[in-house]
Structures are given as structure tokens and as C-alpha cells.
Amino acid sequence: MVEVRFEQISPADFFYRNRDIAGFSNPSRSLYMSIRELVENSLDACEAGRIPPDVLIDLRAQANESEGDVKVYRLTVKDNGIGVESDYIPKAFGTILFGSKYGFKQSRGTFGVGGTMALLYGQITTNNPFRVISSTGKKEIHEYSMMIDIVENKPKIIEHKKHPNQNGWRGTIIDYTLEADYTNSRSKIIEYLINTSIINPHANLTFIDPRGRVYSFMRVIDEIPVPPKEARPHPLGVDVETMNRLLASTKARDVTTFLIREFQKVGRVTALEVLKLTDIDPKQRPKDLSHDQVTMLVDAIKRYGKFRAPDPSSLSPVGKEFLEKGIRSILEPEFINVVQRPPSSYSGIPFIVEVAVAYGGKIPISDEIHLYRFANKIPLLYDERADVSWKVINERIDWSSYKVMKEAPLAIFTSICSPKVPYKTVGKEAIADRPEIERELVIAVREAARHLRGYLTQIEKGEEVKKRLNVYAKYLPKVVKLSSELAGTNPPDITPLLKRVGVTKAMIKEVEEQEAKESEEILIGGEE
């Protein structure tokens, strides 16, 4: 008989064995993911304290470089955020699935994996400890040298130093080594930083690459976005497991009070109406509910159908002004229109869709629309065709009806914010095509595209007028000159007439220069 061996592994061990799931699939992708995860943690730490972010990314090749594109690098990310209390530093950076982003509110991180996974990847590939330096602005700066105990999923503190904080510094520095391929990831890293500066125009981002080249993206707006607030879950977003957890931790003395206290948008009347759909006594203690009663309660909530929309205070959208200034600072478009849809929800989870349409400027002319995707202010650079935004832009919108030519300098920006973005993978690169999100995207894109059509129509009309005026500028002076010669008189001054029909001296000069150029080309062609 074959013996089957069972074992339990820790979250750190799981991601050690399956790091591809988190996006750390190869040295090139892993470097991009490491920078991305640490930068996002820094931005969150700054916004939590309403601090204008200053983030420095320094990537340096180690002296003992290996041959080829894959080398050992030292990555340092420094921010001016709120810092981390000393007691929390070891667990925050040395434990997988430990973090501050599990509450019901929008945040860049989702799983409590990213930043720690970057450090774990560095440990796996170089077997070196990582260094965390942080201060909340108090009297001391704490410096930890650590590794992660993969089997136990806990930090191994190698050294802990305390330094006097004489200047009142506040922030966090992450410093570690990792095996990476900068040659093949450079373009993605730069693209990520450009997109991050678009969606976070209030941040200063500085990147120093291994060759000493400095890429700076300076803030273009001094305001700080209003951070999201922690919110109670909406009844429609709760399943049986979540209900059991809430019942186990509640301090409510009866089921009616439990529904009112633990859920948003539930008052006494609503709570009693929901309980009427069950055989549960409104005065029954929450902890006394049986398994069948819990199932019955969740089923009644799904059938109720009269809950108010979720509270959007748990969201922090980019904002029309922020998004427009971010786009203008990088692409300098001739036209831009930003649409922010009102809050909506899927399965009791609130979300807001923002869309911008930009045309001209530094946007390259292409037969494909340039799509910039963002989720909770995170640029999404991989798996574009798997994303709901790509589906909407390329399959749901007929761009010819908006006067967009096959080849055009057109860029579409989609931003989705939610306490729970429906990513397709742990790597957070593509958003699932939930019908509610798809509908909001379609409405927003069409609204912005209508404004684009108006702009292109004006350009079209302007070109027609210019073409007509150029005819006047080209032929009217010639007609007057020939007529005067035939009549044997001096040609009259036709400047007032040209001005009356809208022809300027600049137009006449432009036509004359064009004619001279054409004559020169004909002459050169004849000589050849």
C-alpha cells in the first residue's frame, strides 16, 4: 500500500514554493514587482498621515556581479511616511499575511503579501538578511536586520539598533539584496514610475538606476487626497463564514442590535424586516445562533432586496483635478476630458469608476488606442487583454461614431477604486469583468468620448474654414493683379476685403511660401 504523507505548511512556505502566484516568476518580473510593492507601501504610509510623498528608489549592482543579464542588486526604498512603531516592525516586514490592510476600506495593498514577498524573494535568491530602518518621528530611530523563518512564518531578528532621532525624522527605509535582471525589466520599471506619477500627481518619485541615471517625477499638485475611512461591511457583501466571525466577536446582546451595529446601512426597521424572513427571535443572543440559523440569516439578507447602497466613505478616488493634472504633466494632450461616475456597488462592495480621454500632444499616433489602467491608484502593466477595461475599449465602443480615425493620437485612462477590487490573480494585474464594473466603464467612456467627438468636430470645421480661406488667400490677389493689368490700371488695395472674409497676412505669407516651395521642387525635379 502506498503511504500518503500529510503536512501543513506556513503562508511563507507556500509563497516560497509558489512565488509565481504573487508575480515573482523570474528575475526580470521580480525586480519590477519588488519596486512596485515597496513604492505602493510608501505611498500608503504617506497618505495615511496626509503627507506629500517623497519616495526615493535606489538600485545598485553589487561588486560581485555575475555574468549575463541576471545579477545581484541592492535595492533601497526610502519614504517620508508615518513610519512603523518599533514593536510592529519585525512582524510587519517578516511575516507573510500580516499587515494593516485587512479592514473594509480602499488601500493599494490587498493580501498583506507584496512588501514582505519582495523581501522573501531577496532572501531566497541571495541568502542575505534585509534591513528596515523606521521612525514615527519620536526620539529614536529603530534599525532592524532580519530574515524570515520560512517554515514558521515569523521574523528572525539578527540585530536591533536604536539611534537618536535628533532631527525628528519620520519615515521608513527598506534595504536588501536580490537577484534580478534590470536589463530586461528597465522599460517596465520606467513605465510603472511614469504611470504612478500620472495617478499620484501629488508625489515626488526619484529613481536612481544602476548606471547612476536619475529619473525624477516631481509633484504637480500640492493637495493631498482625502484618505478612505474604515467602514463596516455591507450586508450583501457578507457570506456565512464572515457572518460567523462577526457573531463570534460582537458585543451586541441580541440579534437585532447585532445587525444594526455590525453592518452599514441597517437600521432597526430594516433589521426587523430581515429577521421576519427567518424564524430567529429578534431578542436571541447572537452567540446562541445555530449553524442552520446563521445560514438562514445570510439567505434572508440575500433575499431582502431593500438595502440602501453601500457607504462610499471607504473609497478615495483619484479625483478629476488630480487625474487631469497628472495626465497633462506627462503627455501634454491637446484635449482631455475626465469623467467620475457616482459610487456604485457589486455584491455589496462599493466602487467608483473614473475615466479620462486624452488626444494629441505627446500621445503617439497609432492604430491601437493607448490604454492606461489603474486600480486603487496602482498602474496595471501586465495582462492587458485579460482586463475588463481592454474589453470595454476594444469591444464595446465603436470609435468611428466618435470621429476617431483608425490611426489617432488617442489615450484612454481607466481608474477603479474599491475596498475589494476583483483582481483575477494575486499578482494584481487584471480586473475581472464584473457586469456592474463593465457597465460603469462603458457609461464613463461614452460620456468622455462624446466630448472628444465635439472637439474633433470643431477641428474638422476649422480645417474646412482654413481650406476655404487659403483659396481666397491664394487666388484673390492673383485675380486682382491680372484684372488690373488687363484694364491698364494700378491694382487696388484688397487688404480690407481679405480681412472682411477672414484672410490674414500670415495666411497670404504661408500660401506664398508654399507656392515657392512647390516651384523649387518642380525646378529641382526638372534638372534631375
Q: What do these coordinates show?
A:
By secondary structure, the chain is α+β, with helices and mostly antiparallel strands. The protein has four domains: 11-217, Heat Shock Protein 90 (2-Layer Sandwich), CATH 3.30.565.10; 235-304, Helicase, Ruva Protein, domain 3 (Orthogonal Bundle), CATH 1.10.8.50; 312-457, Ribosomal Protein S5, domain 2 (2-Layer Sandwich); 464-527, no CATH class. The protein is built from 14 helices and 14 strands. The protein has an eight-stranded mixed beta sheet. Strands 9, 10, 11, 12, 13 and 14 form a six-stranded mixed beta sheet that branches. Helix 2 (27-48) packs antiparallel against helix 4 (114-126) and helix 11 crosses helix 12 (435-487). The termini are far apart.
Characterize this entry briefly.
With 528 residues, the chain is of the alpha+beta class. It is built from 14 helices and 14 strands. The protein is globular and about 115 Å long.
